[in-house]
Amino acid sequence: MRFQIGLVYVFGGIAKLNGDWLRGEPMRMWLAERTDFPLIGRFFTENWAAYVFSYGGLLLDLFAVPLLFHKWLRWPALAALIVFHVSNANLFNIGIFPWFMIAVLPLFLPAG
Length: 112
Fold this sequence. Notes:
single chain, 6 helices
């Protein structure tokens, strides 16, 4: 199960390794449509916000699995992934996927 969930993160990161994503697109367009988002929505039209969200998602996807398996970094990684998935659920209409990914994160906790 860990392997299968890990593949979701790895391939999500690999899919983001393209010119558009590295230029902040389509995140720039998606964020500009959500300026009504509480607290941080006013920043969504800023150029840097598109890069923060684009590169943040890319790096988190690529490094989620190694971070989850590292004893010292597991809990910060879990917290970052929960924030990532909750923000995705609230910003984008992508159905149950973010909630499912949060629900399976305990698979990466030690058994004992």
